Amino acid sequence: MGKKEKTPITVNDKEYVVEDMTDKQKAFLNHVNDLGRKMDSARFNLDQLAIGREKFVELLADALENPEKVEESETVN
Known about the structure:
The protein has 77 residues and is mainly α. The protein is 56% helix and 10% strand.
């Protein structure tokens, strides 16, 4: 059989091996990783929301400056 590889991680500039951690330490690591993914997802969603809001501000400004361009059928609910 092949040799099992160890998974190193660094916490506060010190290296640890995941396979040598206690179950509780592994659970904390899982929380840290999951929260990191959730934060990345939240940033992604916030970027989408910010760009969407920016576009609607542009549409609003255009509709206020050029009311004749806005027709009843083009309203957004």
